[in-house]
Write a structure and sequence with these properties.
Blueprint: E1 4-7, H1 15-26, E2 30-34, H2 42-54, E3 60-62, H3 71-83, E4 89-91, H4 98-111, E5 117-119, H5 127-134, E6 148-150, H6 159-171, E7 177-179, H7 186-199, E8 205-207, H8 215-227, E9 234-236, H9 244-264, H10 283-292
Helix pairs in contact: 1-2, 2-3, 3-4, 4-5, 5-6, 6-7, 7-8, 8-9
Protein name: Leucine rich repeat containing 73
InterPro entries: Leu-rich_rpt (IPR001611), LRR-containing_regulator (IPR052201), LRR_dom_sf (IPR032675)
Region (Disordered): 257-278
Length: 293
């Protein structure tokens, strides 16, 4: 029997329901477990974590919306990740981790052999946490790292922290998707990110929705896509003070790049993913939703 999925949202989980989840995990019959926004006791959370540690089939774990709500729960999760070897995607969006929580998780996250997608949006992170996250984006020639990273809505990160992330992105050998929406970045940080995008050989998606950008940032990105070859194929600039004309120019240039790539590609590549251009809201959600289906 193929591994199934367990998806529960916003419910109060009874000990009996938790027991069923744990048994399914231990039987390696679950590939996706989502308990986003659910309420459960600390004891039951620990039971689930111990079962996650034993599971060999679990590929995706969704603990969004406050499930990891204390340092003790963070420790339970860290212990589970140190033993688990199958997990590829971890969602912790909306968890009050703070820097201390990421310090607790760091060793387990950075050494996990299969983890490639991590959502730490709205986790109340600061510069210390971001420094640890940069270590999960190893440079060329180093170990494999994250392919998708979400850091939406972490306003406690300073310009120094974002500058450090930009450097890590520029040299990362794996990162394909970076969601930074709803952080107060401004034009200066956007300029650093443009340099990182121009340097990266892998980054395809950058979400900057609602990050306080103006036409100044858009002009920098326009110059980049117009004059320099990049891997970028999706740039989200919605909810910023950027003129529709500039957005359209960037969109058109990215589209031209897609057309050029299509002409250069071999005739039969069934595994190639289609390129797309989005300058509207909600990209991060849509990308993550693909993995949740």
């Amino acid at each position: 029997m193929l591994p199934a999925s367990i998806q529960i949202t916003g419910e109060l989980l009874s000990p009996a329901e938790v027991q069923d989840i744990c048994e399914s995990l231990k039987e390696d019959s679950v590939r996706l477990l989502s308990v986003r926004g659910c309420q459960l006791s600390d004891r039951d959370f620990g039971r689930i974590c111990r079962s996650v540690a034993e599971s060999r089939s679990l590929a995706q774990l969704n603990l969004n919306l406050g499930i990891v709500s204390s340092i003790s729960r963070t420790r339970h999760l860290a212990d589970a990740l140190k033993t688990n070897r199958s997990l590829q995607t971890l969602f912790l969006h909306g968890s009050p981790l703070l820097d201390a929580g990421l310090v607790t998780l760091n060793s387990a996250l950075s050494t996990h052999p299969a983890l490639v997608c991590l959502d730490l949006g709205d986790c109340m992170l600061g510069d210390e946490a971001l420094g640890l996250i940069c270590g999960m984006l190893p440079p060329d020639g180093a170990k494999s790292g994250l392919r998708e990273l979400t850091l939406s809505a972490n306003p406690g990160i300073s310009s120094k922290g974002w500058a450090r992330l930009s450097i890590a992105v520029a040299h990362s050998s794996q990162l394909r998707v970076l969601n930074l929406d709803y952080n107060p970045l401004g034009d200066q940080i956007a300029g650093m990110l443009a340099v990182a995008v121009a340097s990266s050989r892998t980054l395809e998606v950058l979400d900057l929705e609602g990050t306080g950008l103006t036409n100044q940032s858009a002009q920098v990105f326009l110059d980049m896509v117009e004059n320099y070859p990049t891997s970028l194929r999706v740039l989200v600039l919605a909810e910023n003070d950027i003129s529709p004309e500039l957005q359209q120019q960037i969109c058109d240039l990215l589209s031209e790049g897609e057309d050029d790539n299509d002409r250069e590609a071999p005739p039969h590549q069934p595994d190639s993913s289609p390129q797309m251009v989005l300058l509207t809201s909600g990209l991060g959600e849509s990308l993550l939703a693909e993995t949740e289906m």
